[in-house]
Amino acid sequence: METTDKSLIEAHLSGDGSAFAELVNRYGDGMLGYLTKICGNRPQAEDFFQETFKRVHEKACTFRGGNFKSWLYTIATRVAFDTFRKQKKLRFISLNSVLDVNSDVSDISAVCVDENCPDPHEELEKAEIRTQVRNALNKLPHKQRATLVLAYYQQLSYAQVADVLECSIGTVKTQMFRALKMLAIHLPEFAGGVK
Amino acid sequence: MNGHLSQNTLIKYLFNLNEESKADIAKHLDQCPQCAARRDQLKAKFATLDTLNEEIKADEALIAKTIAAAKAPTKPTRNRFIPPTWLSAVAAILLIGTLAITIFQFNGPDNIETADLTKKDQPIAKTQSDHKSPELKVPGTFNFDNPPFAPASAIELNVLPKKESTQITIYNSADLTLVREKRKLTLKRGWNWLQFMWANTLIDPTSLSLEPTEQRDKVRIEQLVFPARLKDIGRWLIASETEGQVEFEITYFISGVNWRAFYMGTLTPDEKQMKLEGYVKVANNSGEDFEKTQTRLIVGKVNLLDRIADLARRQHPYNSPLREYGKMRGWDADESDKFDHEEGEKLPTEDFGTILGGLSDVLELKRKEVKKQGLSEYFLYTIEGTENIKNKWAKRLPSFTADQIDVESLYKYDENLYGKNVIRFVSFKNDEDHNLGNTPIPNGSMKIYADTGENGSLSFTGSTNIKYIPVNEKVELNLGNARGVIVQPKIMDQRTRNYTYDKNGNIAGYEKLTTYKLDVRNTRRLDIRVEIKRHFPTKTWQLESYQKYEKIDADTIKYNLNMKPESKMVIKYVITTYHGKNETIYNEKQLKARSSQKAVTPQAQG
Q1: Model confidence over B315-332: pLDDT tens digits?
Q2: pLDDT score of A81
Q3: Please, which residues have CB within 8 angstroms of residue A90's CB and are 6 or more apart in sequence?
Q4: What's the pLDDT score for residue B338?
Q5: Which positions in chain B touch A53 (Cβ < 8 Å)?
Q6: Whether the predicted interface score ipTM is above 0.85
Q7: B345 shares a domain with B236
Q8: Do B573 and B543 form a contact (C-beta atoms < 8 A)?
């Protein structure tokens, strides 16, 4: 039987070192995906990832039950937004911006040289679309982007998103609508099916 | 529902943002193919979002790092403390009390002296002795047994005052320059800290040395420390039993200063004498400015253990001893770094000894430089006066001038060395007879001009690189092709004779006679000397020549010709060479002749 998040937190608070590791393993992939999409930058996402779990480790005592995933994403979102706020004053531009997010998909040249690629032309086209989608996402304000990522990619309900972002469902819907409206302008037209 | 659906409505419908009207919109879409098509188009567009829906894996390294980082102890956060209002009043009382006590304690005669001396200080030279030592306040009882570990603050440091004088000695061959600076430091009685900085220079910190030039019995240099975390800084601890200004000499090695010698020779119209002017170009890329500096050059090769430039760029002058210790103990780099950054870190004195011992060869050279008369393989060359040589600047300084140096113009023809060209040489001797000989002449490039005698105008004769010319040694300067002197060798006749045969009647040897004619022309309006060397293909030869020649070696002869202005000479010679069996016969005859000569000579003596 799988251990619940709550029991893991309790075990961690009682000094069980493996409980925290289990939590990191359990939510690691989803969390890194969320943060990568939020900040559009893999190295920064990894920094946020570490900072998020560091805060979870420190503030585990403040978890009052309920949905751990929402609580975890709330912390991650706060970590990201705090940094974005600071970066408003001093903006860092990654020198590896092209390769940052998912180096395997954003690097078009990498698609071309892959010998095992069944259809290089199709792969190239996909890579191009990914780049355009990523650019469209990066155009969204942070809060709209977070809402969209949580609702669309992380498949949280609007209520859960509201819980994570600590706002009302109405606000979430408004943010979501605005994000989608902007994406409708910037997303590429895609004739074929998308896998 | 009237009309078509807007894009906003379709977006809300697709993403369940408006639950209330969802049924109505669905109904409309069933009936309106146009709106349904726009819905599908929009759906396809949003479907592209799925291209980023790939699973992103947090790798094990990241997870391990995250767990480790989370478990690492955090720095204690600083609590914001808002003092209550009553605390300000208490603080004010305490401050007034402390000030009152301090004024009372510092009201002694010694402290009045401190204040006076501080006034005398130069703006950049702050002096401070250890106020914490109670012994300091009583003259004559200062305890020098316990040196302070480090200055308590930067205010306690003596910063180097302006240089009084500087002397640089450039060891060109090793990219090494010895700098000796004299500076007057204002010392307090007791412990004094002197800070020396070498940032952005190529100073070798391991070579730093400080010595008082006066009051040596009262001033002692205790130690030189290289504080952790502070780059390119050394601090000397000086124990002084005196107060006031004391002159010190700071010596160190620096890299990036080099020199080159240049010479300009001007031949007189008759080309029998030459005026020689020597220059030295000193280039300073050391990062240090040298003002009013006496420049001394070392001629000769110096053997160095380390490259000074490398030593200068080290973060730790002697490498980090604790890092090495850490390595020995198997600490990791971070761990040894922690120790490395301890404030006021002092190097063990035995390390100084070891490294200075390693540099003793170099320091030995410093002592060698005073030996000028052939005892050393180095020679010190001092440029008169002082010069300012700023960083990144180069300066050409006159080194010497010698006039009326007797020179000999010589024209050489040697096919083996110079082909069909006649090469001009100017030779002179570096001795007193030639108005030289005071010093060896360092290697450098020389340009020779000839005074045409017409309104003092000069014509360029040639240039060459000269090697180090010791005193009393002769030098020949190769000035390149001479156009005014022509040597043309011609073969006039060639025949063979005296054939020897083997048992089968085949030719086994012969003699070859070649007649040469050398046309030598001097088109110049000067007396000249021409040296013609001829090389033969074998060591068994006989020469018939009316012109006197000199045998140089087994297969080389030399003609020395003194030619009048615009004259011509013809040299004819017949060379007989022996080949094959004739060579053996000739050699045997020669051997017999020599042995009979030897046998006759004692009898004749007897």
Answers
A1: 565 655 445 445 555 544
A2: 87
A3: none
A4: 41
A5: 66-67, 69-70
A6: no
A7: yes
A8: yes
Contact between chains at A180 and B15 (C-beta distance less than 8 A): yes
Q: Which amino acid type is present at position B586?
A: Y
Give the C-alpha distances (Å, rounded to integers) separating A37 from B56, B57, B107.
10, 13, 70
pLDDT greater at residue B602 or residue A190: A190
For the domain that residue B514 is a member of, what is the CATH number? 2.60.40
Model confidence band, residue B70 (pLDDT cutoffs 50, 70, 90): confident
Question: Domain check: are B30 and B139 in the same one?
Answer: no
Q: How far is A52 from chain B (nearest CA, A)?
A: 9
Q: Which two tokens stand for residue B478?
A: 């190769």
* Domains held by chain B: number: 3
pLDDT at B305: 55
Question: Are the beta carbons of A32 and B56 separated by less than 8 Å?
Answer: yes
**3-class DSSP assignment, residue B5:** coil
Residue B582 counted as domain residue: yes
Among A residues 72-91, those touching chain B with beta carbons less than 8 Å apart? none
Most confident segment among B12-26, B61-75, B361-375, B401-415: B401-415
- C-alpha distances in Å from residue B567, one per residue of A136, B410, B461, B526, B563: 96, 16, 22, 10, 7
* Residue A25 to residue B46, Cβ atoms within 8 A: no
pLDDT > 70? residue B357: no
How many beta-carbon pairs below 8 A join chains A and B? 110
First and final C-alpha spacing in chain A? 34
Residue of A57, A128, A135, A169 to mutate for B, most B C-beta atoms under 10 A: A57
**Cβ pair B240, B187 in contact under 8 A:** yes
Which CATH code for domain A1-93? 1.10.1740.10
B459 three-class SS: strand
Adjacency order of strands within the sheet including B485-501: B485-501, B507-522, B567-580, B541-545
State the residue range of the domain holding B539.
485-605
The nearest CA of chain A is from the CA of B336 a distance in Å of: 26
Q: Does the residue B550 lie in any domain?
A: yes
How confident is the model over B214-229, as a mean pLDDT?
85
Residue B129: predicted pLDDT? 39
Which residues on chain A are in Cβ contact (under 8 Å) with B8?
Answer: 177, 181
Considering the domain boundaries, does residue B226 fall inside one? yes
Pick from A29, A130, A184: CB nearest B45: A184
| Side chain identity at residue B13, one-letter code | Y
**Does B567 score more than 90 pLDDT?**
yes
| Domain assignment of residue B411, yes or no | no
Q: Is B57 on the interface with A (CB under 8 A)?
A: yes
From the CA of B4, how many Å to the nearest CA of chain A? 18
Using only C-alpha atoms, chain B has a radius of gyration, in whole angstroms, of 45
Predicted confidence (pLDDT) at residue B289 exceeds the cutoff of 80: yes
The per-residue pLDDT for B61 is: 82
C-beta of residue B436 within 8 angstroms of C-beta of residue B460: no
Chain length of chain A: 195
Task: Give CA A166 to chain center in angstroms.
Answer: 17
> Considering the entire predicted model, what is its pTM?
0.44
Phi/psi-derived region of residue B437, left when phi > 0, alpha when psi is between -120 and 50, beta in every other case = left
Average pLDDT over residues B581-596: 89
Whether residue B206 contacts residue B317, with contact meaning beta carbons closer than 8 Å, is answered with yes
With a cut of 60, say whether residue A16 has pLDDT above it: yes
Average the pLDDT over A75-95 and give the result.
71
B356 CB contacts (<8 Å, ≥6 apart)? B206, B363
Domain boundary among B319, B342, B358: B358
Cα separation, B194 vs A119, in Å, equals 73
Beta-carbon contacts of B146 under 8 Å, excluding residues fewer than 6 positions away, are: none
- Does residue B549 register a pLDDT over 90? yes
